[in-house]
Amino acid sequence: MMTESLIGALFVFVLASFAGFEVINKVPPTLHTPLMSGANAISGIALIGALIVAGDRTLSISVILGLIAVVCATINVVGGFLVTDRMLQMFKKKEA
C-alpha cells in the first residue's frame, strides 16, 4: 500500500518537474519580473503555513520540519524580492 502511494507521489513529482522546466524555459525576460512577484506571493503563503505548523508548543518532528520550512520559505521570499528589485532597477532611466 505504501509503495503504491510512494510511486504515485514520485510520478507526480517527476511530471511536475518536467512541466515546470519546460514552462520556465519558455518565459521571455520581460515577463520574468511579474512572474517572480507571483512566486513571492506563493512563497509568502507557504511561509504562513509553515509558521502555523511550527507554532505548536510540544516539540515533535512536525514542529522541527515546520521550523526548517519557515527558514527556507523566508530565504525564498527575501531572495525573490531582492532579485525582483534588482531586475526593476535595470528598467529605470539612469540620471546623468
TrEMBL record:
Transmembrane parts of this sequence: 6-24, 36-55, 61-84
A Gene Ontology term for the protein's cellular component: plasma membrane
Reactions mediated catalytically: NAD(+) + NADPH + H(+)(in) = NADH + NADP(+) + H(+)(out)
Superkingdom: Bacteria
EC number: 7.1.1.1
Localization per record: Cell inner membrane
One term of GO molecular function: proton-translocating NAD(P)+ transhydrogenase activity
Identification of the protein by name: proton-translocating NAD(P)(+) transhydrogenase
Organism of this sequence: Roseofilum reptotaenium AO1-A
Taxon lineage: Bacteria, Bacillati, Cyanobacteriota, Cyanophyceae, Desertifilales
